[in-house]
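Assess this one:

_____
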Amino acid sequence: MDFYIVNGGPRKKYNTAQLLEKASEGIFDKLKKNHDEEDINIHQIHLYDLDFKGCKSCFHCKRIGGKYYAQCPIKDDLRELLPKIKNADGIIFGSPIYFGEITGELRSFLERFLFSALVYGGESNAPKRMPIGMIYTMNVTEEGFEYFYGNKFDILENAMENLYSKPYSLKVYDTFQFSDYSKYENYAFDPELKAKRKEEHFPIDLKDAYDLGVKIAQDSLKI
């Protein structure tokens, strides 16, 4: 079985990466009960390591009878990766939130991943349905998120639901941003409160990410 963990953030060891790692553990621990461990493949993808851009509106993926129908023909680091991910048994995406949006890298990736599976006014032409998870990390509190963003990510998640499956969504609020707040200009956040939040609540967030991974594994066994 093949699962993809896609880190849309620039850091490989901080909040988003740690949550994705816990989600990976959830997938593995659930599946190893009924599968040989060597048959469980969890691929870690760091988008900031890849060379690619967003959709170029060439429409080759929509051309009836065309060589690249339902595929993205752009020759870059996603050319061979996208077909593998489209045929995965499950995917979990993670991204910090910058100015109210997922990172540009993840947005560009999703343009390519989703648009090539979209049929205007028709059914999805994705090769298979699969479980999907979305993990968002952000500086704002839960109250701040509801005030500023509300249902901000519903459009993206609705597109995923129409093409692949309704994603499990985990939003992690009020994250600890700097290892040492004294080294950076910051007038908005109290470092002590941030540290307390990390100590008391981030372990709960990690458990939620683990449980999300378990759900992805469970759903993959039903498809």
In short: Strands lie at 2-7, 41-46, 90-98, 101-102, 132-137, 168-172. Helices lie at 15-31, 81-86, 104-115, 142-148, 154-163, 191-220. The longest helix spans residues 191-220. DSSP finds six helices and six strands in the chain.
